[in-house]
Amino acid sequence: MGVGYMRYDGGLLAGRTVMVTGASSGIGSAAARLFAEEGAAVVLMARRKERLEGLAEEIGAADGRVAWVAGDVTDPEDVRRTVHTAVERFGGLDAAFNNAGQAAAGGDLHLTDDAVYEQVMDANVRGVWNCLRAQVPVMLEGGGGSIVNTSSVAGLLATGACASYVAAKHAVIGLTKAAAAQYGERGIRVNALVVGNTRTEMLEGVLAQAPELEEQFLLRPVQKRLAAPREIAETAAWLCSDRSRFTTGASVQVDGGWTAV
Known about the structure:
Elements: E1 17-21, H1 26-37, E2 41-46, H2 49-61, E3 65-70, H3 76-90, E4 95-98, H4 114-142, E5 145-150, H5 163-183, E6 188-195, H6 201-209, H7 213-219, H8 229-240, E7 251-254
Parallel strand pairs: 1-2, 1-4, 2-3, 4-5, 5-6, 6-7
């Protein structure tokens, strides 16, 4: 309560255990706070141990149930350790928000360094792949669950971002649809968030490299503003809950109307 929110028993995610990747900042940390507020036990994963530990202490101080694992989603063993922590600490895994990713500034494809391509594809595609492979078996054993993968308007359109980022976010939507089709009859729902421009540390880093992109980012959406991270987290919470139980394989736009015009 002293940090501005409190958990309550009748929350949207009451009684659930939810894994959140990329939890040390931006949308991931907003989701961690919101999910705990909505009654979930949250299992947090990110590379930055100090930030992750601080966030866990904050949630715990507000009577939230929380565990954390410092790790990288590109490492399958780190992801498995996080899923194992959910099972060991809270008895299973009911939902997951696979939010970790990496952006890059735009520029000509033929001038993009191979290392940039590899980093962006690894963080955004291999990371989601590793998470799905670790999360699905536990959810199958538990009778089902809900998985939300973070894509982007760049998963539907060429937005001016780096070509490898556009390709990666398209791939996240493809993985989401494939997983939804394969596991829907076995009780697992899988959806993607098509996220618009959000005021996060990652976006600020892109704008630092290419400040001219900010005008372009605000030109396209119907709502001429950047989203707050919590606004994205609220849609993720709905998708992780039973209130979206007939929604699977969807690419849910949370983009201020970017893709509406």
